[in-house]
Amino acid sequence: MFDFQIRINRFGNVIKGVKKYLLFAGVILSVIASGCGGANELSSSGEKDDRKLLEQAEQLYNRKKYTKALQILDKIRYTTSVVADDAHLLTAKVYIGQHEYALAASELKWLIGQYPNSDKQEEASYLLGEAYRLAAPRPELDQEYTKKAISAFQDFMDRFPSSELADSAGRKIKLCREKLAQKIYLSAELYYKMHRDSAAVIYINQIRKEYNNTQWKYWADYLEALVRIRQGKNDAAKILLEGIIARCTEDEKLTQKASKKLKKIQ
Length: 266
Hints:
The protein is mostly helical. It has helices at residues 2-62, 66-73, 84-97, 101-114, 121-135, 144-159, 166-193, 197-210, 216-230, 234-247, 252-265.
């Protein structure tokens, strides 16, 4: 009987221990749940704060307060914020506003590479081409950025063929090609002025081969006409000048020059 009573007491102690354990576990779960709720609230609060910062930066950008806009954007663009991609895009626009086109291109490349699923991909891809185009110096200097612009705009058109900006990208490619053709023409013109006609003709033919759909093709024809006149080959020059007058409809200055030169050799 005594032994049975001991067993009963032990069983009671076990029950009490289980109750204490369950009570403790309930407290822990409650704390965890409370913590999760707090984290969600903090996350939501942080997102609202970031959106406010982005809105402030946009307002400063619209007012051309570029330095202050960048100071705000620096707080969110290299974070895990849900508006980090927006911040990178706006930063690039700020750099463009400051004429820091190479920095803008770098920012846009980062956005495109790091946020492949961002809804800012389309605009960023277009602006990358524009940043490169604007970064390029005058035609007689190195045109690496112009070539990069053509590549970026073409990539944009391949990725977003139905974009509202596709037509604009096509026009920008044409502008870039005109610039590259002009660079070659300036070299041809320089050799002509130096009386190195053979070298001038090499560059003239390069324009015809690579940039035959630009206005500089007609300027190349005009320059060759001058070469042929100097060589005493007026008949060849006449054919070139008549072709310019008949087909060059977008450059009145050039057609007038060609007409005057044609009258002199007839």
